[in-house]
Task: inverse folding
């Protein structure tokens, strides 16, 4: 027994000794472009440093241990390097709504969008106006269109086409997790249209409003900029005075410094300064002192400075803790003791001063920047995000965060990824989950996120990665599971009679009008319609319910003029008159399906619901622009989508309809509707 213990002790001693020698590796991607990646050891300072090539890929050896890594400007504290192993870390931006805005709305005077805030202030909005020119007003409310105003509206002069409206900081403060209503309204009583995303639901838990009317299946194609929580500036001066060769501010030194008072932040994560020394790169030593230039050194770091580029020292979140209102000092000098030139800023740091070789440089601050956290330990970064097992129906993921944090996996079979699963709700450093119920032989995308839940911190996102599930049977053909049978349209107590809403009796009850406006009419072989018919569907597009649906398909191979893609502007409205009560509110519902092959940007077939609440005959012709309410145009990418339209009846009859637009002739186009129903809601 005793011998065994000795043997174990000897083995431990041996492996500890060899660990100091055997290196691990840090590898990943800094995000593309030439970016800096640096790894700092709390004990030894800068241990790994590189400027990546334009691909952003990097790899360098490191001794085993914990590091704070700056990867493409993002900080990841406590990244662990294992002996003989590679740790992967990749830069990632937070997801933003970079959506193709391929659809558009009917013309309205105002558009609104509810959204759940992730930041602590609205910073700006950005949208496209396919039609109309107007001065605009941007307003924010709590909850919904009738909610309490947040701040004072922001006005913007004439807007058209691509419009961005900046919002002054502090104007619209928000609380993360709360719902807000953003409204963009013409201040000139002008109707305009706003571009819409094809992807139906960029704002989870939010919906669009057209002139105050909710459109639950729509989200506006508007990018909502938010100020996100994150590291705070403890002290800084950023008005670069460049190289000063004469007068006050000129001159070289061997030690530079800047005093500052901690006003924000409870620790230091990074300290930056810029020096020139005639080109190349050399090591600098950055020291944080308490009190002032002669004060006690709290922490020193070696950094690699490229002449005239500047350099940052990074600190673990618990290395330098600050007391609010107390004075501190950043000192920096070359490791080899040679002279250098410290770049100065205009005097912007109110309770700090620049020093060179112990003397104040009057009228200036150093060009410097000290960043910290509101609460220490708020930053996490998912690294070593790994797929550890894939079957035809499942996949196992794991990742690490050096700081304890929660874990969510986001995944989906298209981008941006929409589904998410909370892996665990408590905070930890190791995260893993098995996703089940996946489809075989399908490409999935995923990214991991973690959040420390510390004050002033925000959720950190890994890069999006992808994988392919295995086929269900290696030798067998790949069959999708049979589609579940959809429920039949229900006649509820509030339902209003729609004649033959499921097209089981062909065209009974419906009337049609159609038109085509091809760009090159000489090449257009189809005439003016009607284009659609009640059919059983084709090419696997089956009715949503029953045996029949309404619509049409177009195949290039059957086209008398097979020049595709070709701009045709084929349109059709099917409509019927229904009995309603003036002043009462109704909702028209239908299932829509469009599918295309070879559709480029914006070429998809599209369908919308329309209502003539005055029953003025507006649905009897294609070009009626007034007297109708409408949904946005929808393209559903081969899937049935339920869509609804609210309206208030103005007479004892109203016309309800479905408007088809096959803008382009492609390799294949399919446009269908089924199960049209109407309900009274008030
Ligand atoms: Ca939504
Ligand atoms: Ca100053
Ligand atoms: Ca049907």
Result:
């Amino acid at each position: 027994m005793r011998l065994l213990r000795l043997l174990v002790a000897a083995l431990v001693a041996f492996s500890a000794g060899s660990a100091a020698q055997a290196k691990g590796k840090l590898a990943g991607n800094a995000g593309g472009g030439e970016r800096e990646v640096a790894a700092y050891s709390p004990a030894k300072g800068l241990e790994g440093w590189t400027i990546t090539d334009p691909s952003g890929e990097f790899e360098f050896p490191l001794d085993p241990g914990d590091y704070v890594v700056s990867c493409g400007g993002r900080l990841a504290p406590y990244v662990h390097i294992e002996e003989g192993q590679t740790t992967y870390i990749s830069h990632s931006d937070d997801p933003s709504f970079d959506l193709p805005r391929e659809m558009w709305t009917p013309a309205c005077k105002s558009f609104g969008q509810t959204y759940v805030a992730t930041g602590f202030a609205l910073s700006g909005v950005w949208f496209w106006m396919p039609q109309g020119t107007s001065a605009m007003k941007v307003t924010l409310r709590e909850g919904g269109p009738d909610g309490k105003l947040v701040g004072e509206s922001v006005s913007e002069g004439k807007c058209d086409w691509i419009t961005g409206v900046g919002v002054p900081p502090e104007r619209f403060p928000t609380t993360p997790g709360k719902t807000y209503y953003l409204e963009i309204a013409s201040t000139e009583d002008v109707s305009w249209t706003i571009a819409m995303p094809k992807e139906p639901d960029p704002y989870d838990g939010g919906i669009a409003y057209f002139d105050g009317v909710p459109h639950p299946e729509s989200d506006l194609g508007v990018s909502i900029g938010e100020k996100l929580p994150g590291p705070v500036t403890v002290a800084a001066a950023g008005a670069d005075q460049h190289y000063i060769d004469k007068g006050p501010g000129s001159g070289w030194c061997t030690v530079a410094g800047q005093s500052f008072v901690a006003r924000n932040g409870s620790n230091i994560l990074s300290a930056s300064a810029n020096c020139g020394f005639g080109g190349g790169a050399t090591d600098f030593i950055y020291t944080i002192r308490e009190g002032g230039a002669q004060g006690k050194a709290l922490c020193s770091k070696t950094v690699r400075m490229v002449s005239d580029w500047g350099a940052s020292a990074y600190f673990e979140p618990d290395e330098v803790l600050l007391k609010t209102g107390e004075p501190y000092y950043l000192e920096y000098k070359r490791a080899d003791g040679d002279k250098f030139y410290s770049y100065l800023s205009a005097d912007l740091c109110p309770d700090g001063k620049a020093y060179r070789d112990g003397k104040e440089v009057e009228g200036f601050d150093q060009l410097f920047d000290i960043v910290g956290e509101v609460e220490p330990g708020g930053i996490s970064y998912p690294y070593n995000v790994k797929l550890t097992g894939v079957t035809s129906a499942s996949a196992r993921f794991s990742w690490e965060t050096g700081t304890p944090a929660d874990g969510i996996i986001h995944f989906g079979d298209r981008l941006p990824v929409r589904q998410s699963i909370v892996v665990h709700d408590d905070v930890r450093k190791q995260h893993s989950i098995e996703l089940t119920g996946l489809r075989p032989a399908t490409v999935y995308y995923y990214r991991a996120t973690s959040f420390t839940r510390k004050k002033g911190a925000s959720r950190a996102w890994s890069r999006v990665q992808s994988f392919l599930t295995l086929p269900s049977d290696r030798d067998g053909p790949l069959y999708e599971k049979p589609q579940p049978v959809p429920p039949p349209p229900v006649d509820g107590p509030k339902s209003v009679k729609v004649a033959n809403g499921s097209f089981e009796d062909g065209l009974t009850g419906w009337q049609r009008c159609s038109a085509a406006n091809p760009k090159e009419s000489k090449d257009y072989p189809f005439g003016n319609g009607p284009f659609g018919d009640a059919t059983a569907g084709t090419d696997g597009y089956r009715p949503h319910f029953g045996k029949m649906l309404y619509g049409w398909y177009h195949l290039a191979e059957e086209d008398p003029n097979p020049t595709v893609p070709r701009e045709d502007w084929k349109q059709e409205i099917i409509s019927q008159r229904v009995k309603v009560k003036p002043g009462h509110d109704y909702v028209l519902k239908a299932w829509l399906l469009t599918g295309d092959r070879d559709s480029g940007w914006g070429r998809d077939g599209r369908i919308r619901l329309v209502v003539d609440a005055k029953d003025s005959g507006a649905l009897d012709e294609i070009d009626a622009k007034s007297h109708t309410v409408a949904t946005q145009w929808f393209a559903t990418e081969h899937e049935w989508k339920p869509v609804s339209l609210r309206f208030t009846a103005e007479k004892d009859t109203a016309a309800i309809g479905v408007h088809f637009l096959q803008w382009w002739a492609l390799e294949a186009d399919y446009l269908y509707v089924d199960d049209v129903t109407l309900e009274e809601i008030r």
